[in-house]
Write a structure and sequence with these properties.
single chain, 224 residues, alpha/beta, 5-stranded parallel sheet, 23% strand
Length: 224
């Protein structure tokens, strides 16, 4: 399946470099030099991801991102900018962007981030996560390993789905508790450890991932 990426960047040389590099990595990339051109392109074609500068004449990246997000709630937006201050990053994320890279851009890192954004967008769209022989179906709340269903509770499913959606990301016990337990719950953080142990036991036959303890911090899922 072809993936279409729109690059909005007024530095023509950088625009060409980014487009060429992404094209060489298997994407279909179209470049334009400002948001007005981007709106025309988006009107006539469907894109899977947008990479945009911030500092552009006329409509800047912030306004562009806000407009795009009003029209499309799910398309990943990555800012590629010289602005390295926290206020700009904060404003960007408030406008609804998904990632932020500071120039000069490492092209290999750009590809990694694009891959990650597209993977997450695909997970959100399909509500289904496939890791090797494991399939997690969020609509059915089911876990299937090599065509055999593994019984899981809703909370077990949600914890595993979250961790596998962001492999290598460390989640603290408190983060998991805040997301998957009621606020007024009197359960202690030890409950998270209990659930992690249950998940490790239930999926011990799955060689495609493991849940790793990050001492003093929490847990992360690592793909094998």
């Amino acid at each position: 399946m072809s993936i279409y990426i729109l690059v909005v960047e007024d530095d023509l040389k950088l625009n060409q470099i980014v487009c060429a590099f992404l094209n060489n990595n298997g994407y279909n990339t179209k470049g334009c030099k400002n948001p007005r051109e981007a709106y025309d392109l988006m009107y006539n074609s469907l894109y899977d991801l947008i990479i945009s500068d911030i500092m552009m004449p006329g409509i800047d990246g912030f306004e562009f991102a806000e407009t795009v997000r009003d029209l499309n709630k799910t398309i990943p937006i990555l800012f590629m900018t010289a602005l390295d201050d926290f206020a700009s990053k904060q404003k960007g994320f408030r406008m609804g962007i998904d990632d932020y890279m500071v120039k000069p851009i490492n092209m290999d890192e750009l590809v990694l981030r694009v891959n990650a954004l597209l993977r997450r967008a695909n997970i959100a769209a399909e509500k289904k996560l496939t890791i090797g022989g494991l399939i997690l179906d969020a609509d059915a709340m089911s876990a299937t390993l090599n065509d055999e269903e593994i019984p899981v509770t809703v909370r077990e499913f949600n914890i595993l789905y979250k961790m596998l959606s962001y492999p290598k990301k460390t989640f603290s016990r408190q983060q998991l508790m805040d997301e998957f337990w009621d606020i007024d719950s009197e359960t202690t953080l030890r409950a998270v450890d209990v659930y992690i142990t249950k998940l490790r036991d239930k999926f011990s036959d799955c060689a495609d991932f493991k849940i790793v303890t990050v001492h003093g911090l929490g847990y992360k899922a690592v793909l094998q």
